[in-house]
Fold each of these.
Amino acid sequence: MNDLTISATEYQSRRRLVLDQIAEDAVVIIPAASERIRTGDSTFSFRQNSDFYYLTGFDEPDAVLVLAKVHQQVRFILFTRPRDPARELWDGKREGLEGAVKHIGADEAYLFSEFKERLPTLLENRRQIYFPIGQCAHFDETLIQAMTGLQRMVRRGIQAPQQLCNIAPIVHEMRLIKSEAEIAMMRQAGAISVEAHKQAMKACKPNMYEYELEAELAYVFAKRGCRHVAYSSIVGGGCNACILHYITNQDKLKDGELVLIDAGGELYNYASDITTTFPVNGRFNSEQKALYELVLSAQQTAVKLIKPGLRWDEIQQTIVRVLTEGLVALGILKGHVDTLIEEGSYRRFYMHLSGHWLGLDTHDVGAYKEGDNWRLLQANMVLTVEPGLYIAAGSEGVDKKWWDIGIRIEDDVRVTSEGYEVLTPGLPRTVADIEAFMAAS
């Protein structure tokens, strides 16, 4: 997987595109993430800020990216930690100032500890400061203090910034359209995650604990190169499958129940996101089969719609109609389909939306509307499609035979120039395929 990389040229092009969208006398400043204490003197596993990573490919904490135009040329300045043989002995190699220039492509590199001291010089004669407003109060305060200090020096002929602007919308719109290199990364992350879900299906047996299936997933993720999960894995058996973001994963899996697994690996910071639902004992009962086939029909119908020019909300509308028609046919909802949809009656059992953008973040960035209108899909957007049905015990007016059945089916889909590509193919999805796969395991 070492050949799955984003080139230095691509990072450079991204930085130039950012500056092409702002004024000549503006400056862009984006901080990296910092390590966070988990307990005592140990830290959580480090995860870089996605916007910072998107523009640099630099995966160390305590750094700051500065972008500006100087004589029409992009100037990339990186503040970072110094080389430190003593710390590197314990924590691993650092790029340092020399590596920031040689390997990351910075035009200039300075120590992270010097950022506040050098900041006023970087802001001189710049009219606007673009930064991720509101993401870090301390960083916001640092920039405002520097700007205020410069404004007191106008009698010396220094031009001080007059506007604070949010860089997020610019970078997030760029991130919404994936490059071929990003698609390749996500395709591989998807393949690894498919393998992990299949391993969980193979291993599943009644009286296992949910965390045992979570361990099967984690093993495959790590073995195949996804050193981190894209989000906390959901492994919910029986009634727990009706809890949308259930992550306790500590109950026993019971014979005759379904288990819902929502889990994805993260490869070089790019996410995958898959949900499978299958019977703990390998065989669906009649109620489980009926609801599962309904959710699968909704998912497959929605995926087949995807192409450039499709409105985002058309995916949800299609899913809602398929599910509502099916729930009426099964007697779970009663009434006219159009009226039930208008009243939102389906929301008792399907309470979320059709999916979300996917990329460096699991719930990736980018607007879903342009003004008052739902966005039209474009080539190389990546989204999830994930209809579900969740009928919790005690659901009023619903026969008990449907209670505690929770089902979600989710795949990652790339919009192509003419249609779609499922980035997570190869999972047993039909009832017959799931039962045959688990019987052969």
Amino acid sequence: MKIGISCYPTWGGSGVVASELAMALAGDGDEVHVISYALPSRIELIHENLFFHQVVVPHYPLFDYPPYSLALATTMVEVARHHHLDLIHVHYAVPNAVSAVLARQILAPQPLKVVTTLHGTDITLVGNDPNYLETTRFGIVQSDAVTAVSGALRRTTQEQLGITSRIHVVPNFIDSSRYELSRGLPGARRWARPGERVMVHISNFRPVKRVLDVVEVFLRVRQEIPCRLLLVGDGPDRPRVERRCRECDACDSITFIGNLPLVEEVLVGADLFLLPSETESFGLAALEALSCKVPVVATSVGGLPEVVEHGVNGFLHPVGDLDGMAASALELLSDDARRRRFGEAGRRAAVERFDEAAAVAAYREVYRLALGGEAKAEGEG
């Protein structure tokens, strides 16, 4: 099969999943063409049938805001026409889905099927904005097949955008073997002093991630036991978080790592993962932590309850419940045996429910349906 994949190349979950999917498909023998304005951070061009096409946006004095969506559609047309793509799989509805639908119309009568995967903020934030709502709905409705990364996101899409067409749920996934290979690395212990417990948070430091809550939970735990906080990522809220660290005189116990392409290099060896987000469509970072046998303390929002099982491999709390999250963190960090049990349960869940092979197979089934195959009689997404 010849497949185009379009995504944002940033460090967020949508770009990570799109990159991992592209490499997995190429590894299985498909011809895969990745289309974006920069090479996605996780992409490794290690397969002879994996290609990258950069979208170049011209800058003219006439345009205060260069029309990326049109440049993206044009690049999709050129790649599909020259390489005879069977379908294009876009990750994120705005503007990728709309650009793909436009590319399909330009290419007619050459067929090009459009598969759209919804990742979260393209619906809950961008897509729900009145400035984008109608175009977001149009891109979804006009797609030949649509997937969402969690049941919670599917429900939100249907409710907020009034979507009645079918949306298949294909959860995010991890390559469990890659995390297994990292097990012998020192990981998080590289930054820890003797006797310190290590807590980790990974995000793009946007307000919705509530990174200041991470710091406040850590400060509560730090009053009871020696511990260190590793903050992985970067983004708009980082200056506020750094200022808070200085205000509470915790700079010696909080380490900013910055962006990393291989987060397992920090997660391995950690004792706890914190994710107090205001909303999460899935929670890929939580899944990556579970895969590294790190229990998770998170908020019970969006798709997180589909990833973290409360009382089994982590704890879930309402948004803003700092005392509750701190108590759960202390409960795990003070009981090595229980923390290890939670870690083992998390690893089992990651392998059994979110393994890469199962997700790739599910996407292949969606591709088959988009290309005109008959739907399964029952049990499908």
